[in-house]
Amino acid sequence: xxxxxxxxxxxxxxxxxxxxxxxxxxxxxxxxxxxxxxxxxxxxxxxxxxxxxxxxxxxxxxxxxxxxxxxxxxxxxxxxxxxxxxxxxxxxxxxxxxxxxxxxxxxxxxxxxxxxxxxxxxxxxxxxxxxxxxxxxxxxxxxxxxxxxxxxxxxxxxxxxxxxxxxxxxxxxxxxxxxxxxxxxxxxxxxxxxxxxxxxxxxxxxxxxxxxxxxxxxxxxxxxxxxxxxxxxxxxxxxxxxxxxxxxxxxxxxxxxxxxxxxxxxxxxxxxxxxxxxxxxxxxx
Length: 285
Description:
Radius of gyration: 24 Å
Number of strands: 9
Strand order of the largest sheet: 2-5-8-9
Order of helices and strands: HHHEEEHEHHHHEEEHEHEH
């Protein structure tokens, strides 16, 4: 296991590729199989070699899908229109369109491809082995039904917090293009508005995952979401408190001119929206 974890560490640190990782495991399995033949008449040693060989075989089978992920080298993030799930709610979900590129040598090669296709983009990132490993593990869990899909988990958390299912929310989540869990906070607030527990007359961009008890959890791809929010003309954006420091740094570096508000719980977001609406109503009198 020490040997395996050493190889895994080298892979996650981008020292070796997925193909190299799998090939080394295969060679190790072959060597163990030869050792099994050599020590077949020595019972004590044979039992140990058999156990190690079986373990190595399992690890090899678990890691072999990595060879199919080596092809993905870069990801481009593109603009997606903010979405108001319930018309008139004023709560807009901020999504980002991600396009993965295969066998691209560097960022400039991706830029050239995007220019050829006349596609605008917000940012381009290099896909690391850590990214590939996470994608592989999530796919395996999904294949063997050992873990919940992020969208299904978000559906359960939102419905549990609201105490009931909402047709509009479920219809949105049934869209094949939905991925991740960062719409959770926006959907919870939308559900409260739909059933009359919250009123909002402002246009607010919202991002943040939630737990089943309403705690607001950190999200990723925040820079691109903030860029989309500003580009779409929003003056208000609610983000998780766990992303507050990151959001302020992005706002300063990208010179983003809008008010960034952070919350740690859905109820905190409700109070904040009520306060914002009260302030807006007083100013309009």
